[in-house]
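Pasting as-is:
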Amino acid sequence: MSVPTLPLPAAALPAAALPAAALPASSTAPAAIFSMAAPPMMFLPDALQACVEAGTCWQQEIARFVDRRLAETLRSWQAVTAARDVAGLVKAQHDWSVKAAADYTEEARRMRQLVTTLSLTGTTPAVQESTRLLG
């Protein structure tokens, strides 16, 4: 039993699979091969730039969060070391826990928003804000 196959357009076949008459006369020249690959390659720099911008935005968001949490942890540590009794120590630990939970919840929301924005639009929030201001 043979499996039916659909004929592929000549552009989808590798050069070795095409009959000699279907190939351009200069198909063996590197310039001809590059010219066939040039249209998709034209968009590569834009795609790479978008990826770099998205990665940079992601890293900036993480760095901002880490800086804020480290500063909050330092303040909490200072409150713990300044506590004069057990009640003050428990209050400092409680305040740190509540603030950490709120910060992590907010960061999860911000990261979800960033990922959603990047996946739906392909641009970073900064680019969207610039476009909004210009348009």
